[in-house]
Amino acid sequence: MTTTPRRVQLPEAFSSVTGMGAPVDFFPLSKTNRLVYPIMAAVMIMASAITCGWGVDAGYSGYMRYGLASVYNLISVPVIFTVGLLIGGIATLVYVLANRSRCVVAYEKGLVVQNRHGLQPVRWEEIGEFYLSITRHFSYGIPTGTSYRYTVKKPGGGKLVLDNGIQNVQHLGGLIGRNILPIQYKLAADVYNSGQTASFGPVAVNRAGLTVSKKTYPWNEIEQVSVHDGVFKVSKKGGGWFSGASTPVASIPNLEAMLSIIDQVVGVKVG
């Protein structure tokens, strides 16, 4: 699939990138990571200083009025708050500093990810496995947000994880999926058509049938293959409650390529 280049304003660090074609889109650090977390770190560190002052004042006042024996009881609560806030503030600050340069640029021929290790380029054809995990969060039945996590793995090793720390990461995940689908589908289809087994983590397909979590179903015995609420499921014709098999979508690499093959054989119900 060919992506459409457009004028994209990139950080200076990306001026050294060559051989990736024109930039298609830029995905900076999310607003939460750029603004909320630094404020949280500052607030927690300042609050730890306030609780420390509270503890010192309480301890000194108790010592002056009741003697040394009262100090421990009076400062124990302020100490707990001070230590907790200080550790939380420092941990948040370390996270902010470690991820301050994190961003992604999508090019015509692949991605370049910037993080604390520098620039990490990966071409579309270098992506061996692509995992997606989408989790919707609810509180008392009310939707409170969605977490996105996309994992890119190279055949020879190396992994990139893209999550809500990147602004508009769901669009980035869709862009990756669209660009690698033709490549991953051809590789898997060639394996399938040659009579071999195409493996997708816990799922495998060949001309004989479909295997899910070590349970194998001949194609003519499959009632339905479906994807719903983050779960891939196969149901057997005339089977009982426990005759089918399922596995989380997040555990399946190159999901779209696999579904494309299955859809041509028995169809796939999505939703």
Structural description of this entry:
- Helices cover 37% and strands 31% of the residues.
- The protein is α+β, with helices and mostly antiparallel strands.
- It folds into 3 domains: 12-29 and 101-188, Roll (PH-domain like); 31-99; 197-270, no CATH class.
- It has a 4-stranded antiparallel beta sheet, covered by helices on one side. Strands 8-9-10-11 form a 4-stranded antiparallel beta sheet. It has a 4-stranded mixed beta sheet with strand order 14-13-12-15, with no helix packed on it.
- A hairpin with a 2-residue loop joins strand 10 (209-212) and strand 11 (215-218).
- The longest helix has 36 residues, at 31-66.
